[in-house]
Design goal:
- It contains six helices and nine strands.
- By secondary structure, the protein is an alpha+beta fold.
- Strands 2, 3, 4, 5, 6, 7 and 8 form a seven-stranded mixed β-sheet that branches. It has a two-stranded antiparallel sheet with strand order 1-9.
- A hairpin with a 2-residue loop joins strand 4 and strand 5.
- The longest helix is centred in the N-terminal third of the chain and has 17 residues.
Length: about 210
């Protein structure tokens, strides 16, 4: 059985980092050296999963002593798939489209490990699909929210964990899945490979295949 010296989050998201810190995980952060938008798929859930796996594999390939967590989130709405908006007009149009309707956030994660440099493989993965209903919004509310700047870095152009909570009327998943890193299935998978932050917060761990 392999020894795992550390845990790495392959994401620059401060929200994912905060989630793992709150769960008591000892980890480092390294952004995956890939162009995630070059990865394509016909289904939004598959797209999120492929991107999460690609991020985890890219970082694990250069850190053979680590288990790497990759994550990604894609939004789907009426047969359309959305990534992060690049500007205010796009954010405004997206909020106008979502207002009063239900959309789905596809939140994926993957765990990768390499016994030696360049041999990374996915050892666990998961996907949570979250149905979210946005309440009807007035033009003034949309303008006020866009002005907060919270649309930046979010596929839905809102931050549920901040003032974006005012935009929604119902959700069908836990807080972490909406933010972008489903903690319950992730922790279950980490425990299944021998990483249990409750019993042993820091490595090295013995990897269970």
């Amino acid at each position: 059985m392999a020894s795992v010296k550390k845990l790495i989050l392959a994401s620059q998201s401060p929200f994912r980092r905060t989630l793992l810190q709150a769960a008591g995980l000892d980890f480092s952060v390294e952004v995956a050296p890939i162009d995630e938008y070059a990865i394509k798929a016909d289904h939004p859930g598959v797209l999120a999963s492929r991107r999460a796996e690609a991020k985890a594999l890219a970082v694990a390939a250069i850190h053979p002593d680590a288990v790497v967590i990759g994550a990604d989130q894609v939004l789907s709405f009426q047969d359309l798939t959305f990534d992060k908006a690049n500007d205010e007009p796009t954010a405004r149009l997206r909020l106008q489209a979502l207002a009063g309707r239900t959309h789905v956030l596809h939140s994926a994660f993957a765990l990768a490990f390499a016994e030696s440099a360049g041999t990374a493989k996915i050892i666990r993965s998961g996907l949570v699909n979250v149905a979210m209903t946005m309440r009807a919004l007035s033009p003034e509310e949309i303008e006020a929210y866009v002005a907060t700047g919270e649309w930046r870095g979010s596929v839905g152009c809102y931050q549920y964990e901040n003032r974006g909570v005012h935009l929604l009327s119902s959700v069908d998943a836990d807080h972490s899945s909406i933010i972008g890193l489903p903690l319950l299935p992730l922790m279950e998978h980490l425990r299944s490979i021998g990483i249990n932050p409750l019993l042993k917060p820091k490595g090295p761990w013995t990897l269970i295949s």
